[in-house]
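Sequence only, no structure available. Ideas?
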Amino acid sequence: MAYTTELLSFYDRDFNLTHYATRLKGVYGGAVAPGAAVWEIYPSFLDARHRDEFLRVLHGGSPTSIDLPRSSGEAPRSAFVFATANGVGIIESSAHGGRSAAEEQEHVILLHQATHDVLTGLQNRRRFGERLQQALEAIGGPKPKAALLQIDLDDFKAVNDTLGHGAGDTLLQLAAGRIRDALQDGESAYRYAGDEFAVIQLGKDQPAEAERLAGSLVDAFKEPFVINGIAVFVGSSIGIAFGPEHGADGEQLMKAADIALYAAKTDGRGCARTFNRSMLLLLEQRENLRRSLRTALERGELYLEYQPLIRPPSSVIGFEALLRWRHPEIGIIPPGVFIPIAEADGLMDEIGRWVLEQACRQALTWPSSLTVAVNLSPAQFLSGSLTDTVAQVIDAVGIRADRLELEITETVLLEKTIDNIDTLNTLNVLGIRISLDDFGTYYSSLSYLKNFPFDTLKIDQYFIADLETDLKSQTIVRSIMNLAHGLGISVTAEGVETSAQARWLIKENCDCLQGNFLGRPLGAEATSDFIRRSPLRVVRAMEGSNRAV
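Reply:
I predicted one. Tokens follow.
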């Protein structure tokens, strides 16, 4: 048996050539060029019957086989026509060794089904593994001659969850089309798994060509996808690795590209990163932190600090509880490093409950008029048991519900919005205060303020930092305060670092101030002393003292 699938070509919905195997040009010469009509390559397709078959396949019909003209003594040839995400594809084959054209075509169809993804028409994971290993075996020398690009769609899950799996499938098809459109000779695309794609690049000047292609792919995903009339924005993050420099076999090279992809995601997504050894070191450090974090709570390495909340002119109204981790070998690890790890590993329910209980117990040592604010992670809303946890802690500690303020960020409202709003409403009914933290830095929507009666808006320190000199920041902060007060919501300004910032905010009737200038985060034992002498400190701050307290 002998057959070939090298004569492969793809056409858009107008039947113009978009992509083709290099060998096709060798067979049909100048007729093969991007944009050429299918009948310029296969003139026999001008026949009305064939055109009807093409249209039927294009509009969702089953694949079809069309016999091609042949010269005297030439083996029978046929074209297998199948639908793709953006048009049709053609696989040309010929029969040898006594096989009929029909038998040979059946082999071609089975081979295509075994090596291509049904949804996107790209080559599948099985084919990817084979081609990657073949590419690595074919190269030699110290310089990289093969590039692997791992591509992951940013925010695909959100589209799938909000618009449904049908929209998700359409998005994958459109994404595959954009990837295919960015390819040149020597580059082949694969759907690896889910919303993960890969491109193998051979015979190119590296690393320049891989970086060029990665840049083209990132740019291609900046334009919105339109699905059922809805504009959907989904970016792409890309990890690049070169063989044999970063891996002499397929598994090693895939691991390197995956580590680079992780770096691209960590660096903000919508970008490409090339593997280097330092990435591996950082990943190993992260894995060590992950293992340590799982036992940090039981070893007593986690603790809380409390930052004062000041109501002008001189009243301490409460403290915000801030989670800290003192690693026995590394020292203090910033929350921005370990909290995402805890969220990803499903540890936030346990840690969050501990934080809530410790903060509430500490609040019992203060005057009964003071509140304690505790931050909630979006991950704590996923378990569905948050309200039960809060109610159990309040009952066990014996603290009044109105002394507890739970702080959320807008990311909580972006995922499973209806469920999370219901959870917040339940907490509100229990008498717990709810604060919207970092207001203005995410996807601030007035609908949040309309749909839920927040007790407090916290203005992010980004707008406070240059408040003394920047008129835009002043206008934004003033507008937020006017909006909140019009809705009966209290306003807290975060990140107050100077007396000038404090005076401006007080003049504009800001309800509460928080920041190192008025009070740094304190250990639990130091909070009582701060409460006793804080009025004097606040008065000095308002008088213009530039000393941090």
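The radius of gyration is 31 Å.
Hope that gets you unstuck.
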